[in-house]
Amino acid sequence: MSELVQRTFQGIIEATNKDASLTKGVFRVTSELDEHVRVKNTARDFEFIADEPEALAGTNLGPNPVEYLLASLGSCQVITYQVVASLKGIQLNNVKVETKGNIDWRGFLGIDENVRPGYHKIEVETIIDSDESPERIQELIKEVEARCPVLDNLVNTVKVESKISIVNEKNPVV
């Protein structure tokens, strides 16, 4: 069990029990076309590239967006396991999450309007190394499945609001 994780999140829980406004947050990412289909992303003080393999007109300098989605899910699951286990006093030796997404490119390419452009199925395998009892691990699994933010975003409808701004000096949009 990570004492740092336990102390940090226990402190957050105690503070928010006194002031619920502390639980509200906003994350921002800026994504901008770089070259071909490569995209430069900025999140807080971090820059990372999203790209496609060469077979999809990319330069293969980074994972593609759907791979980042799988990484987001896997990472969030691992973090949620660590946080929940720490708060419940459950000892974890290691947690590894393997994700796999099944996709049919016909939707993205506009070939078949009956095919979704995103994943049709995401498979998640979690490997937990722990000396805890099977009952405690089942309790942990149930909590993580209920509390993982990225999993929640994938299995429940999230309201997405889009705003489009068109910049064209030759033909200003009125």
Automatic annotation (TrEMBL):
Gene3D superfamilies: 3.30.300.20. It comes from the Bacteria. InterPro entries: KH_dom-like_a/b, OsmC/Ohr_fam, OsmC/Ohr_hydroprdx_reductase, OsmC/Ohrsf. Pfam families: OsmC. NCBIfam families: OsmC_like_Se. This is Osmotically inducible protein C. It comes from Cyclobacterium qasimii.
